[in-house]
Amino acid sequence: MKRLLSLFCAVLSVCAASLTVQADAPEPSVSAESALLLEPSTGTVLYEKNADRRLPMASTTKIMTALTVLESLPLDRTVTIPPEACGVEGSGIGLVPGEELTVEDLIWAVLLESANDASTAAAIAVSGSVGAFADRMNEKAREFGLTDTHFVNPHGLDDEEHYTTARELAVIASRAIENEDFRRMVSTVRHEIPKSGGTRYLINHNRLLRECPDVTGIKTGFTKRSGRCLVTSAEKDGVTLIAVTLNDPDDWQDHRAMFDAAFPRCHRITLAESGGVSFPVPCPGSESGAVRAVNREGLTGLFFDEVPEIRTVVETKRLLFPPVEPGDVIGRVTYRTPEGDIVGSLDLYAEEAVPAPDPPRSLLDRLMGRG
């Protein structure tokens, strides 16, 4: 019986490598003091330059500010603007003490207009003070596993103890774009929020949103001390990349160059369509003598520079005993490289029901013709 219940393994196919890219493609020339290009789903770094150097981050701070607020307060919460948030140095939207805006209004102002007053108001709404909010930001940085990032305010105005690295800022951005509201906001070019007796018109400072169709966000920054700072995300053919530059006099061009060099290296391959894997599992009691094991979800794999040969391996039970219900997991399909590395896997589900057999009748029942 143990043999019958053991897993049956079948190599269904071997797919030859079909895509390659020039391995000697030149790296982009980036003028930033520090830079990094990241594919966030795999954590693959496609380009880096001084990526672990601690530097000021200016208003790219607001990526963490917005994420912290989004995870702390409902968007429709009304915030009464405190005096401490008004007249903050640098960019702002002219907040007035006592006016009321929603949390969502404030985050729009933070991300599009890079408003320091809105950042301060949102921070106080979450934690009661700028310092307490910075503590919360630092706690979140530790949760992300960051060791070279420290915040002292929610807006990024200069402070010796306010710093990050290109590598860790890319991690923050990759976590932020997992938030649907954050993605929606940073990809928006224009938005309106109210003000007393009128409307505030917000314009996203990230000009690449208007110039590059693949760019989907994220945040600009500048102070005299930090220089130009920029974090962008871009998506093409199902691949998302995040670029970070710190102290970069030519950031717009550098981000274009990094994306142009990296996207041709990325290949997202369909490994399985939904329902594309179907394998019979012997089952006494089923009409055909077998129940088909089928995948419900599709699966893709992301490869860099070249696509290796992929082995498709199906594992199921040798024999399936009723009862069986549709949706029971009765197998698994795994995709491996020739070296044995797992690219991905999917559960296989029973496609049909097979009822349990009727209990055997007793000798007396059979003699009496009962049952």
Question: What strand line-up does the widest sheet have?
Answer: 1-15-16-17-13-12
Helix share bin: 10-25%
User: What kind of sheet is the major sheet?
Assistant: 6 strands, antiparallel
CATH architecture grouping of the largest domain: 3-Layer(aba) Sandwich
Q: Spans with pLDDT under 50 lasting ≥5 residues?
A: 1-6, 11-25
User: How many E strands?
Assistant: 17
Distance between the termini: 30 Å
What does this structure look like?
With 371 residues, the chain is an alpha+beta fold. It has two domains: 2-18 and 269-350, Peptidoglycan synthesis regulatory factor (PBP3), Domain 2, CATH 2.60.410; 34-249, 3-Layer(aba) Sandwich (Beta-lactamase). The chain has ten helices and 17 strands. The strands form five sheets. A six-stranded antiparallel sheet has the order 1-15-16-17-13-12, with no helix packed on it. It has a five-stranded antiparallel sheet with strand order 3-2-10-9-8, with helices on both faces. Helix 2 runs antiparallel to helix 3 and helix 3 (103-112) packs antiparallel against helix 4. The chain starts with a helix and ends with a helix. Mean pLDDT is 91; it is low at 1-6 and 11-25.
What's the SSE blueprint?
Layout: H1 2-5, E1 7-15, E2 34-39, E3 44-49, H2 61-70, E4 78-80, E5 100-102, H3 103-112, H4 116-127, H5 130-143, H6 166-176, H7 180-186, E6 190-195, E7 198-203, H8 208-211, E8 215-223, E9 227-236, E10 239-246, H9 251-262, E11 266-272, E12 278-282, E13 290-294, E14 299-304, E15 310-317, E16 329-336, E17 342-350, H10 363-368
Antiparallel strand pairs: 1-15, 2-3, 2-10, 4-5, 6-7, 8-9, 9-10, 11-14, 12-13, 13-17, 15-16, 16-17
Helix pairs in contact: 2-3, 2-4, 3-4, 4-5
